[in-house]
Structure formats: structure tokens, C-alpha cells
């Protein structure tokens, strides 16, 4: 019995978000390599893997597929800098034993997207969304007061990825084509950095080189799955699935790496989960109303 397009999309979405959830385990294997070196390798190899994938998929139309304007290139340089900053913060945090902070950041991200929509895109917030944002802001503030400083890592991850999404939203460029140019534009600085970076004894092993090379594949595989899913699923369902990744990271941090889960963290996560639940239920209700109207 053939699998429906919806089922294929759901499986692809499940794959990419589960993949992202377990990503910290991969970068833990590279804990002995400085975060900047990992990101430089990730930029270079991601560009090669994306080009290879697009060449296989597009074949003769590859050149026309990759064409972008000078204005788009400039904007992609900005978006590339934002996503690379996000990668760097994530990898550094994971290897510094702060996976819990990265999980919190990606839970906050959907709420940051809503806030940016209000501030930069003149989107109107409904009462439900305002309540959710206030709950999340209060929970995050409480965590900052509890630990004695703002949760910088979580906020930096949420804001950089939120800004990345905001910039890319203004661009009419396909996701993988955009990521190709984002990495290519930063490839030269990455190569120069790697050539000038002093060799690390632990980073000269064959296993380490293999892991660094495959970091490019780790970057694009879930993105391919996400793009496939996004074409076949509703944004509401994608919104629900996206919470899988930070949930897995959260469990990895607390159960496997015994990261400290204080009372402040419990309050913060409970508040943010509550806010996300409110928004998700509201989105589902709105989506069902639209479907009923169309029918």
C-alpha cells in the first residue's frame, strides 16, 4: 500500500527534529576541538555537501538554480553571519556542559519569533499570544533572578535564530540554495582561520578529522528532511513537531549528563512549556476554523 504524501512529510519532519534533538551527542564527541575550529569545518564541509546534493537533484539546471542577485548575496551574508553565530554559541555551550541552556533557548525561539513579528513585521498579536509571551518573559526573568544573571546562552540562541528567520523571511531564495550561499560567502574566512589555527594534538587523529568532515552532513541532512516536510505538512503540525528537538536535548542534559536542574530551571521551563502549549492549542484551533470555513 503506497505511503501518502502527508505520511512521508510527517516521517521527514520526525526525522529532522529527532536528529536535531540528538545533535549535542555528536558535538560532544568533538569536545576536545575548539568551538571555532568545529564551526569553520562545518562551514566548509556543509558548502561542499549542499553543492553535491543540489548537483544530483538539479543536474543540468544547477547553475540557474544557484543564481542570486547582488542584493540577495548581501542579505545572505548577513543571514549567514547570524546562523553561524547561532551554530557557534550552540557548539560552545554543548561542549561547555550547558546542553540544558541550549534546550531552553530553542524552547524560547518560537516565542521570540512571535515578538519579532510584532516589532518588525507589524503583525498583530491576539490576547492569547500576549498572555503566552508574558508568561514566558516572567519565567525567563525569574530564572535570571534565581541564578543571579540573565540566561545569556538561551537568550543568545533564541535571538540569533529568530533574527536569522526574520532576515530569511524577506528573501525569495530557496532554503538550501540560501544555505549554500551563506556557507560559501563565509568559506574563505573559515579556510584562512583553519590555516592559521595552531594544530591541536587531539584534533589530528583520523577519527576527529572524519567527525569534522561529517559535521557538514550533520548540518544539511536534517535541513533536507525539514524542507521535504514543510512542503507536505501544515505550519501548525510543523510547529508541534519542532518541540521534539529541545525536549530530547533537555532529557539528554538532565538524564545523561546530570546537568543541574535547579528550582529556578523548573519554574522557567514550566512557564515556557505552558506558554508554548497555549500558543500551540490556539494555532491548532485557528487552523481547524480555517479548514471548516474553506469546507
Distance between the termini: 28 Å
- Count of separate DSSP helical elements: 13
Q: Rough shape? A: globular
Q: Give the radius of gyration.
A: 20 Å
% residues in beta strands: under 5%
Q: How many domain modules?
A: 1
Low-confidence stretches: none
Percent in helix: over 70%
What is the oligomer described by this structure? single chain
Q: Sheet bearing the most strands, described?
A: none
Which structural class is indicated by helix and strand composition? mainly alpha
Overall number of strands: 0
Average pLDDT value? 88
Elements, N to C (H/E): HHHHHHHHHHHHH
State the main characteristics.
295 residues; mainly alpha; 13 helices; 81% helix; 0% strand
Amino acid at each position: 500500500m503506497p505511503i501518502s504524501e502527508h505520511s512521508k512529510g510527517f516521517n521527514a519532519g520526525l526525522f529532522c527534529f529527532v536528529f536535531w534533538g540528538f545533535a549535542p551527542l555528536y558535538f560532544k564527541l568533538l569536545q576536545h576541538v575548539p568551538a571555532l575550529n568545529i564551526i569553520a569545518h562545518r562551514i566548509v564541509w556543509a558548502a561542499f555537501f549542499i553543492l553535491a546534493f543540489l548537483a544530483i537533484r538539479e543536474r543540468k539546471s544547477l547553475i540557474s538554480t544557484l543564481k542570486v542577485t547582488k542584493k540577495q548575496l548581501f542579505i545572505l551574508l548577513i543571514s549567514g553571519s547570524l546562523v553561524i553565530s547561532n551554530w557557534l554559541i550552540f557548539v560552545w555551550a554543548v561542549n561547555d556542559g550547558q546542553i540544558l541552556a541550549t534546550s531552553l533557548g530553542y524552547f524560547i525561539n518560537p516565542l521570540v519569533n512571535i515578538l519579532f513579528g510584532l516589532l518588525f513585521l507589524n503583525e498583530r498579536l491576539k490576547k492569547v499570544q500576549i498572555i503566552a509571551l508574558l508568561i514566558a518573559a516572567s519565567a525567563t526573568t525569574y530564572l535570571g533572578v534565581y541564578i543571579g544573571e540573565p540566561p545569556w546562552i538561551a537568550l543568545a540562541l533564541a535571538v540569533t535564530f529568530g533574527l536569522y528567520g526574520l532576515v530569511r523571511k524577506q528573501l525569495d531564495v530557496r532554503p538550501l540554495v540560501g544555505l549554500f550561499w551563506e556557507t560559501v560567502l563565509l568559506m574563505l574566512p573559515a579556510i584562512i582561520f583553519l590555516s592559521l589555527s595552531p594544530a591541536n594534538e587531539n584534533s589530528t587523529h583520523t577519527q576527529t578529522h572524519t567527525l569534522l568532515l561529517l559535521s557538514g552532513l550533520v548540518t544539511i541532512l536534517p535541513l533536507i528532511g525539514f524542507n521535504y516536510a514543510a512542503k507536505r505538512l501544515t505550519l501548525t503540525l510543523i510547529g508541534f513537531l519542532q518541540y521534539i528537538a529541545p525536549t530530547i536535548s533537555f532529557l539528554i542534559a538532565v538524564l545523561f549528563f546530570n546537568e543541574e536542574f535547579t528550582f529556578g530551571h523548573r519554574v522557567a521551563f514550566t512557564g515556557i512549556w505552558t506558554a508554548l502549549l497555549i500558543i500551540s492549542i490556539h494555532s491548532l484551533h485557528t487552523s481547524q476554523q480555517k479548514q471548516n470555513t474553506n469546507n
